[in-house]
Amino acid sequence: MKSFKLASYNICSSHFLHGKYTKENLELLSQSIAAVSADAVCLQEVDKGASRSEGVDMTAKLAHLSGYAYYYFIKIRDFQGGEYGTAILSRYPIVKAQTLNFAVRIAKQGTSCGYVVLDVDGQRVTLFNTHLSIESEEANTDTMLCLGNILDDYAEKNGAKLLCCGDFNTNPPKLAEYLPRFSRANADLLTYADRSIDNVLYLGYQIENVHTVDTTTSRVTDHNMLVCDVLL
Length: 232
Prior knowledge:
Oligomer: single chain
Number of domains: 1
Strand order of the largest sheet: 3-4-2-1-12-11
Number of strands: 12
Largest sheet: 6 strands, mixed
Strand content: 35-45%
Low-confidence stretches: none
Shape: globular
Distance between the termini: 7 Å
């Protein structure tokens, strides 16, 4: 059975090392991504054209520096003359991509999810990426329910098989409570301080070799990278 290596990585908009954006931080992020050799990497907290990050398109730059031929930026909101969101890097061709805005009731900052359909040696793999609200517990729940509705709808219309990476800003028990249909790769691995807030939801797949890569000790970002193998 073919194995597909997947990583989820909150890059803190390349601001963590020195408390502001630097090219050095971006290059260190690219090195940490390249070292894992994942087939696809879902990034959270990504700037595109924002003034605080010198107008850099982080998705395109990290794809180039890390050796990924294909990439897709998922906008959450306008930010400082540019955009802020999440992104997906892939070694495999992207045959379809879409960004879906959440119809939030409580969350004020706005958020979204997006997905790509990858051609993995003839197999189609649907990969979502998101970043849920941290504004309050109620706002987090609001965005989680929005995500759940989107994932359920996609699964019903396209076949119950998908992956969803993200910084969910909550620990696995809440994901189990509000998104019970989806299995969770991360049960207790710490990805942000003493919390397990980064995860991979999956439906219709088997996942193994779930682990983290320490990217916080070196201060390249404030999250550890979450990595797993997906059996296709």
